[in-house]
Amino acid sequence: MNSHGAQLNSPPLVGSDYVFIALLIINLITVCYLGRDIFIQGDKLEQARKDGEAVMVWANQIDEKIASGESIDPKACTPASEADLKKPNFNANTWGDCLGALFGPTGKFSDFRNHFMKDGLIWTKKCDREHVQSKGALVFLHLTSGPTGAPVLSEIKESDALVSGTEFRVNICDRGFRLIKSGDAKL
Prior knowledge:
This protein has about 190 residues and is an alpha+beta fold. Helices cover about 35% and strands about 15% of the residues. The protein has four helices and five strands; from the N terminus they run ααααβββββ. The chain has helices at about 15-60, 60-70, 80-85, 95-105; strands spanning about 125, 140-145, 150-155, 165-175, 180-185. Strands 1, 2, 3, 4 and 5 form a five-stranded mixed β-sheet that branches. The radius of gyration is 27 Å and the shape is elongated. The model has no long low-confidence stretch (mean pLDDT about 90).
């Protein structure tokens, strides 16, 4: 009864009401599912970003170790100085050897894994839809200054020599095969 003493009767539910309620429930379930998926993917990206940051911290400590006379671990990642490169018959360590030593079974980052794909690559040369295994991998790019001072990124080849002072960018290949910048480092 309302304040005037009349009784309120609500009309019975009809077929369209049941359809509306069913669609509402389906939408709520879909939103919950998508929200959960986005959260899981974001968590995977954050874990991959932490791996990239660990590589940057390691690389940025190389200058300090060289200056203090400490040895670089692994040896395959010891960068050559400009003077070393001028010596005849000097064999500089290569980027490919260093990555193999860092991420290999006995390397400093041997516990790293691809957080997006169980069988995915840990690191790769480029983020590419044609190579699905690159999703979630770390991507290293050579960083140089262009003529205007803006940074120019280029692919680091496995045969490139490790030279002291080399700057590079650590990226993560996300689930949409886009590069997500983790940060810059210097050998």
